[in-house]
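Q: I have 256 residues here and want to know how they pack in 3D. Can you give me a structure?
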Amino acid sequence: MKLHYKEMGHGQPLLILHGLFGTLDNWATLAKRLAEHYNVFLVDLRNHGRSPHSEQHDYDAMAADVLQLVDDLQIPTPAIMGHSMGGKVAMNYALKYPTRLTKLIVVDIAPKAYPPHHDEIIDALQSVDLSNATSRGDIDKQLAKYIRQEDVRLFLMKNLYRKEDNTFGWRMNLDAIEKNYEKIAGAITADVPFKKHALFIRGGRSNYITQEDLYSNIEHLFTLVEMETIPEAGHWVHAEAPDKVYDLVTTFLSTD
């Protein structure tokens, strides 16, 4: 699958992969700063953003998508950074194609399986009647019946676009995401660990990565791993603490 992407900057290539329900625009602000030093590629993963839709949505397929993009761009060994679902894609890519990247950065996700915790969001998105909505405000009111947090609703509504008939549509493939949710929440596994440098960045107010995860699954799969915690950040580490993420990423990428 040919993924949609945006390119900016010059230097060492760096691919950035967003999380579930996200788009490449989620990383745009930080990417502009990183592009002062790196050749940054912001990527829409399959069934998200402006990338193609497919009934298949699993980490092997998504890693293969990224490999095809790397091949098409003729950048054989980029650094790859992913957040949440995108972090699992990045981990799977590193484990399956270890010669096709230099370094791995994973933001606030572990390779373990997670219990379902997006049911409310999926139900909310599926409940919205887009055909009769005349404004984003209409859609926000419908989402608010299920989702109280305004920042979550605003994040989800970044996926809205106007169709040719002027009605609203979702850019993400909701049906495929719902159908494949168990795979999205599933574990990343491998028989052989990734033996190049890996950086895991976690939010101190997030419960996605525990200290136990470092010893029980992360170190088993990533032998040269560093773990950094940003105490004041939650799961959206790059949005809540962009300066610290920038410093950690640039330091890690510039170190041999």
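Q: Anything worth noting?
A: The radius of gyration is 18 Å. Residues 59-73 form the longest helix (15 residues).
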